[in-house]
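Structure in, sequence out. Go:
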């Protein structure tokens, strides 16, 4: 009985550890992308590709599927990232929109 209980405890710890690592990895990937996007958009002389927004869109699609623990921060970040999905050409042409996105990115990075 003691051996079985020890095996269950060890297995539960291993599963919990792996889930925590997966959640941390996803949060890191999201943060990394948001920092990159913010830095690109904050520099008015920076040239960016449409893929800057496409990469965020991919994370918006993927994050809920990878958030197997239902982490609230990841859910908040995903909702916030949806607001960043605008036409890249509009961002190139509209300084105000670009500044607004930088502000939203800073807010997301504070989560």
């Amino acid at each position: 009985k003691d051996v079985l209980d020890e095996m269950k405890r060890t297995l539960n710890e291993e599963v919990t550890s792996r889930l925590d690592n997966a959640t941390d990895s996803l949060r890191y990937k999201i943060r990394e992308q948001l920092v990159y996007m913010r830095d690109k958009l904050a520099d008015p002389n920076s040239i960016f590709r449409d893929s800057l927004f496409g990469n965020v869109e991919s994370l918006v699609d993927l994050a809920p599927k990878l958030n197997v623990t239902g982490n609230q921060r990841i859910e908040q970040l995903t909702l916030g990232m949806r607001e960043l999905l605008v036409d890249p050409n509009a961002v190139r042409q509209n300084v105000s929109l670009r500044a607004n996105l930088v502000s939203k990115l800073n807010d997301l990075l504070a989560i």
